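Appendix C reproduces, verbatim, an entry submitted by the partner laboratory led by Prof. M.T., so that reviewers can inspect both the input and the predicted structure.
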Amino acid sequence: MKKANSLLIIICLGFLFHTGLKAQVGINILYPDTSAILHLESIDRGLLFPRMNTAQRDAIVQPKAGLMIYNHQDSLMQYFNGDCWLNTFMKSCDDCYFEIDPSDIAGTIDRVVEDSVSLTVDITQNNGDPQNIAVAVVSQLPQGVTYSIDPNPQFSSGTVTITFYATPFAPDGTFPIVLQFLCGDQTSNFIYSLTLTPCYEVSVTNSTTNYDVSSDLYTTYPSLSPSVPVCVVSYVNSGVTVSSPDVNTPAYTTGNLHPNSVLALVNDGNIIGKGGDGGIANDPAQGLTGEGITGGTAVDLTVNTDVLNNFNIYGGGGGGASMAFAITFPISPPPPFPSITLGFLIGAGGGGGAGGGAGGNIPTVIGLTYYTPGTDGTDGQFGVAGVGGTLNTPISFTQGPATVTINPYVIGGNGGEYGYPGTQGVFAVTLDVTICISIPIVGNICINVVQGININIPVPAPAAGEGGFAIKRNGNNCSIPDNLYNNSNLRGQVGN
């Protein structure tokens, strides 16, 4: 009976179409809609269009504009617009239509073995003229996570590599990331799930000297072993000062962490290297050479480290050179005046470097000494360099029959400000010598045997101390580029 009804309907439709009559046909409905030539109604069946693959579709001879099929190869309804086959949601043959096929929809970064994860996306443009397909990350990424896309855009079909990178700063957890692909009016999105495993955390909560991250870590987490690489986040809290009493020991070090470990330093306090002492004098008899001492290191790295410096990291200032020398000056006047040799130490000490460097001062005095010490550098956030001593007042003394007048203009080298070298100073001294002897009957006879002669320093002038490192990498990677810095929160060299 059903077959007979269907046949009857087909016959009626054919009759109506061939006769050109204006009529409506309803199937399963008594009164079809007046705007429809064919009105179908059903609650358990649908209208099934011809089903074929792309090759079969393209084999249709002279398809009529508006012809529709279901392409089971692409799982799409398609129609012929008179020039080309289009998906039903497309408007013209020039519309860019493409498909994406990601290699992964999830990835994990542990930040110790790997600090990144990559996926590839195959893009296939199957409609429209070949053109650029742009790729974008439209989600807000967590702090410390970045990405790269290569190539971007992709020209027509091809493979795009998307890589996500995570520093130890990034929070742990799983984050959904929306990746968007755009070509013309078409967009295609998919969600990639990125998981970041947690890092260990240690904090400096009180001011201290010579802080060692590894010592704090293994004390806080006794189950950890130095033989295992780890991811560590080290916090220096606000109001805390990390310093050192010794230029040979850094204020802050990553210490004995496994060399494959990674660290993030979040500094909200002060990390300050010790200032170098000013030079004392060049006096071989006392074992003194006069150089200023190099400032101490603020941060010393033993592993790859990312630094988020929100406050101050300062290398110690270098000590200023001394301009003080042991002088031996022979005088040979004509007879009957006796020959004499003058011996004295004269000059000024160097200033201490910023960070508490001591000014140069003679520890013991042997023989004739005319000396002005340098001043100490101060420490703390607002520490400044000490200045070299100044000796510029004429000095007179007697040695045997001689009256000696020294006219000095001597300035010791100044200490360096945080992270910067000290200076060398100035030494300019002239000498006047008068010898008097008593001759019977004749009386006292005096002669100016030396007048306004320059006294040259007996050895090359000592060097000033170099500025201390703000961050000494020791061959490890650091997120702050190598350079000599002098800004409000970073002073000194970053480098090896």
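The first strand starts at residue 25 and ends at 27. Additional entries are available on request from the coordinating office.
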